[in-house]
């Protein structure tokens, strides 16, 4: 005799089955969501090897012209939060007088974990083409060891929308506006985008045809979106029927550079954060507003005196009075040398006077100190040596001030030559200083060749283009 299940037992069985099915579905949802959360967390920390790996020390085992260049040992420190491998080391060679003799490069095929220090032995750089006198070793590149899904700019920046500025295919392509969305916690600059034109006639129907690229030289903030205007993409192919726009790459921007850029846009000034350090932001804005205007009372002044006077207005750094001796020179072998006591006292007095002028802190303060040579190095003074057309111009002496904690070498200058009343330079040259400029110090360099002179200038201006951090 078979017993049939009652209604209550059947209802209980159905309830249990529904609960089990619901639990299974929830587990699947959690499982699918977990990797994306992990990817988002991984995407937040994007580090560059050459910025976080430093050369602590190194010793040569074999070197000399025509001989194998073997480094007995080199100690590297990873100050970042990511692991790196395949570390590229570049060594610049100099004479005792800091004349460049070329460079060597090799790759250490090993792993340097985050927050560790490691010594590598018997590193081979190949055959040396000069005698070893002075050398500077630094990290040129390193491969990030990805944990999980790669976190690249092209995966973190999305194109939300775009609009062309009139015209049809076959005309100049100007993006009236394009909106990008940043899904990471990193700020990005120099965003490279590409346009793929679709539907172009070819061996296959619907293939991608002509492609154009452009770089947006602006900053995309973290966890937000921004619209950029008037981007020139070049020629729009006449056979295209539609197009697709995507992000190819972008560069992470440091806190320091971001603060400096933001301050400049508002006519203000950004400084490295210091304890109990105050200054007048209004005064900085006033100086920035006066930059570029021709100061009065320049009659009878030499080229260098005019430059010093304009420099005082543009950067708030008072030049030495006429006839006053230039700042003392720091020996190249002493990158950490402190200024003389008298100079230190003058700087302290100037700081104290600046603090008492107005008790207001800078709005844009940064804590990190990454290399930005064009901002870290200031041209305080120079004496132009003159020259005639068709000869090599010479800077008799130039005094540079390093306002950062990073020593620099291979400092590249841009020298612009003007005629009176001209807003655009007649021509410009570049020159390189291969000596070392110490951190938080100043140094005077002499007899710098300024390139071939196409004309006799009536006004000379000098600025910093770039420099290489001194890693040793």
Question: Which helices and strands occur, and which strands form pairs?
Answer:
Elements: H1 7-43, H2 49-52, E1 53-62, E2 68-78, E3 84-94, E4 100-112, E5 117-127, E6 134-144, H3 153-156, E7 157-164, E8 172-182, E9 188-198, E10 208-220, E11 224-235, E12 242-252, H4 255-265, E13 270-272, H5 281-290, H6 303-315, H7 341-357, E14 364-366, H8 373-376, E15 377-384, E16 392-402, E17 408-418, E18 427-433, E19 442-452, E20 459-469
Parallel strand pairs: 13-14
Antiparallel strand pairs: 1-2, 2-5, 3-4, 3-6, 7-8, 8-11, 9-10, 9-12, 15-16, 16-19, 17-18, 17-20
Descriptive notes:
- The protein has 472 residues and is α+β, with helices and mostly antiparallel strands.
- The chain has three domains: 49-144, Immunoglobulin-like, CATH 2.60.40; 153-253, Immunoglobulin-like (Sandwich); 257-469, no CATH class.
- 21% of the residues lie in helices and 42% in strands.
- It is built from eight helices and 20 strands.
- It has helices spanning 7-43, 49-52, 153-156, 255-265, 281-290, 303-315, 341-357, 373-376; strands at residues 53-62, 68-78, 84-94, 100-112, 117-127, 134-144, 157-164, 172-182, 188-198, 208-220, 224-235, 242-252, 270-272, 364-366, 377-384, 392-402, 408-418, 427-433, 442-452, 459-469.
- It has a three-stranded antiparallel sheet.
- The protein is globular.
- The relative contact order is 0.09.
- The model is unreliable at 35-44, 203-207, 277-295, 327-338 and 348-360 (pLDDT under 50).
